[in-house]
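User: What would this chain look like folded?
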Amino acid sequence: MTTEASGPTFGGVAPDTHLLQPLQRMLESEPDRVIAMTRDGDHFVDATVEQTAERVRAVARGLVAHGVEPGDRVALMAHTRVEWMVVDLAIMSAGAVTVPVYDTSSAEQLGWILEDSGAVVAVVENNEMRALYDAVHDRAPACRHVFTIDTADGDDAAAGLDDLERSGAGVADDEIVRRTAALGSDAVATIVYTSGTTGRPKGCVLTHGNLCANVAQTVDAIGSEIRPDDRGLLFLPLAHSLTKGNLLFCLEMGVQTGFASDIAHLPEELGMVRPTVIAAVPRIFEKVFNAAQHTAHSTRKGRIFDRAASVAVRWSKEFHGGRVRPWTEVEHRVFEKLVYGKLRGAMGGDMRLAFSGGGPLGVRLTHFFDGIGICIFEGYGLTETSPTLTINRPGAWRPGSVGRPMAGTTIRIADDGEILAKGPQVFTGYWLNPDATAEVLDDDGWFHTGDIGELDGDGFLRITGRKKEIIVTAAGKNVAPAPLEDRIRAHPLVSQAVVVGDERPFVAALVTVDEEAFADWVQESGLLASCVAEAVDTAELRAAVAEAIEAANASVSRAESIREFAILPHDFTIDAGELTPTLKVRRAIVHGRYREAIESIYEGQVSRADQQGRE
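Assistant: Here's the prediction, encoded as structure tokens.
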């Protein structure tokens, strides 16, 4: 083990660098190149570089016409769609700063972001979001105008995006050119409010230099894997730094980018766009695997799937170990025809690369996807780091790790195990919040991530937990919940898991059931239950979930193992605030909302298993 590792030498970015330059370069060299794809009925419609640039300029002129000045903040609340990209680029073209707001944000969250950022204009997606804006507008007197991307038929009162574009007819293109030319690496590009589980969100100030540096670092790490005809599909929120970083990388590399209509239609739209590369959080890959496994077992093909999965993992390990044994190669070719091609087909058919971030991806799952022909490069970073600090890459790929430091980046492990970072992608601080900034940026310039990890002798970083999430049992045993939760979620019947046990006599877990998998499981088990709520206390469902718990416990010591669990009557949702828009569990909310379920586990301070042992 080592305590510090650095990436390759990085030349930095020029002082006049800004995020609009990739679009400008393509406009000069390839104006007819398809750069974006959006759904229209049963197909996707292409948009060229020239068409996109024209609309960006039109929106930028409209913003200028409505008094937006360089450095002003403009709020943007919408789900992932091509207009999000257009408005974001237009805001920067006007010299202003984008303040993204999750489309699932509450009125309270929207009001705080508008108030704290001092946004002078807001662009929202629909009338529902407009109603949220109207409810909190009195908290943000600086916000003078609001525009709605999708106005309802017959609603003449709401100003739409088309109205914004038309209003800029009197603004000369030279003004936009002047403002864009005035941008540089030190100019603020965006203020991204963290979705924190407690307290008010903090605004991460990211400059054009921060973001451009991270794009250049990503190109250095995996740019060689991108082909001229590659296609991507964005489906996670663009308000999240992982998706925004992916979009900026696609613009830099000229990747044709599809914008999914919503995540509910993802399986269908993967087939329509046939992406070759995507970026996603681990839960997406888990759901793809679990769904395929469940379908196979429900159609009496479970043994074939399980064998194919085992061969895929073995093939990947042997391939990256330098030699695939002949029998492994034979089995792999057989299952390519029987299983692997169909799995890739479920993801569009052409996918070969994927990037995973936002949480840990299991070793077995990484090898599995690699074995079926989709290489996943797992990385690590935070909103404050633009976002990527480390990444697996060609020639330096180690499942179970989040890769090596990016070019120009240094990772250090502090005495208490916390991961510290330095690099050109690290932000300069939180908006109007010097106290919060001082908590994470020390006097020597190290950013304190709040994550716990370790570096191996080759400089690969492994994440072992969140500093604030480490559970310390009553016996003083430190337990990292994330690895246990990852293994529990690997079970096809499980949707989410939250490990608890801080200052308690033993470790326990709250588990939610995947409702789609449950419907098929009920038929197979013969249990008379129409929903999860009717089955949470049945011996059959508890036995099924216990399999997942036992699989997780096999990886830890007795003191760290889960001794008891509770099955919740329904799954966590984004709308209920239990999940972030990128499907991370909000622990503080879950702990508070299900306090009674947790207390019932520990009632009497003795686990059910111990009680049975005495009997």
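Confidence is low (pLDDT under 50) at residues 605-615. If you want, I can go into more detail on any region.
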